[in-house]
UniProtKB/TrEMBL annotation:
GO CC term (a single one): nucleus
Organism lineage string: Eukaryota, Fungi, Dikarya, Basidiomycota, Agaricomycotina
Sequence ranges assigned to domain Protein kinase in this UniProt record: 98-336
Protein name, UniProt field: Kinase-like protein
Annotated SMART domains: S_TKc
Annotated GO biological process: mitotic DNA damage checkpoint signaling
Keywords annotated in UniProt: Kinase, Transferase
Record GO terms (molecular function): ATP binding; protein serine/threonine kinase activity
Species this protein is from: Wolfiporia cocos (strain MD-104)
Region described as Disordered: spans on this chain: 1-33
């Protein structure tokens, strides 16, 4: 079996989501930022026992086969047919070796692994990051006792931080939430707008604590079974505690504002505002909820000049005013 030191490699530069550089941040410049913030590709087998000591287990071939069997039984009971798209995952588990061998979800990047909590079987997702990375700093900060219960903090709950200092790696154990916005859209217009409100609340919360996300997009918004929506993936994020007016250059995220496309410096907070406007547009198209009044909120958020975009708090205030002006009958109308 390889040693822990052999169990970690850094992904190539092509694997990284961002090449942005900031004029100032809270990161220590005495070490290689690119190295500590690159995605990891751990040998998960080497950390199976350590994760187990914390009360969590990684998915095995047996777990995956049982999942599909229960899922298919439920479909049959409802009179539905089994989709051929489900077969690759089941066959991967069947061909992966013994039932106790780990079974990696091929749809996840190397730094993520599905698992469960030993005490109650609750599903979790475990993410491996460098112990000195910005992502770990920010997720730990947003999950601190002082912040995690704030009503506008919509991060997905973190269940544990499992540090392995000798390998410079930490495993972030999170509740497993799902991207249901497309497959199971909100039932009413009120519920859909509540989804967008939760996003703007979280953006306001992050910015108030000098954190910018820098990769806001639909794939980074997940939901649980209680209609709570949460933000994930802080790989690109920055924290600017001591920089009142930060500027960044060369940022690359899923949604890129015009000044960044032109190769100009930009305000990272206003990059988040632009990306949030695009997210809200895409969510409307995806779910079929067309809200003409929302253009009064979105137009300033998508202004070509980043200096003229609203703050997150201003965008949230405008959004709440828009929702208040929509009548209850329309808000409670069902999905189109």
């Amino acid at each position: 079996m390889p040693t822990h030191k052999q169990a970690i490699r850094r992904a190539s530069p092509e694997d990284s989501d961002s090449d942005s550089t900031a004029t100032s941040s809270s990161s220590d410049s005495s070490f290689d930022e690119d190295a500590v913030n690159a995605r990891l590709s751990p040998n998960w087998c080497c950390y199976r026992a350590i994760i187990g000591k914390w009360g969590f287990r990684l998915d095995t071939c047996r777990d995956v086969k049982r999942f599909y069997q229960r899922y298919w039984d439920g479909l049959v009971a409802q009179g539905c047919t089994i989709s051929e798209s489900d077969w690759p995952g089941y066959l991967r588990a069947c061909n992966g070796g013994g039932d106790d061998d780990l079974c990696k979800d091929a749809g996840l990047p190397d730094n993520l692994f599905r698992g469960s909590r030993c005490s109650d079987g609750a599903q979790v997702v475990i993410k491996a990051v460098n112990i000195r990375s910005r992502e770990y700093e920010i997720v730990r900060y947003l999950s601190s006792p002082a912040l995690r219960k704030h009503p506008m903090n919509h991060c997905i709950p973190v269940l544990a931080f499992i540090e392995v200092p000798q390998d410079n790696v930490v495993f972030i154990v999170m509740e497993e939430w799902s991207p249901h916005l497309e497959s199971d859209p909100p039932f009413t217009l009120r519920a859909f707008l509540n989804t967008l409100r939760q996003h703007l609340e979280h953006l306001t919360f992050m910015h108030a604590h000098h954190v910018v996300h820098l990769d806001i997009c639909l794939r980074n918004i997940l939901t649980n079974n209680e209609n709570r929506y949460g933000c994930i993936d802080f790989e690109n994020s920055r924290r600017f505690d001591e920089t009142p007016s930060p500027r960044i250059l060369g940022h690359r995220g899923a949604e890129t504002p015009p000044e960044v496309e032109r190769g100009q410096w930009s305000d990272p907070y206003k990059i988040d505002i632009w990306a949030s406007g695009i997210l809200m547009l895409r969510a409307s198209t995806l779910t079929g909820y067309e809200v003409p009044e929302m253009w009064h909120v979105l137009r300033p958020m998508l202004h070509d000049d980043h200096a003229r975009r609203p703050t997150a708090r201003e965008a949230l205030k405008a959004f709440n005013a828009m929702v208040h002006a929509i009548g209850n009958e329309r808000l409670d109308s069902c999905h189109p």
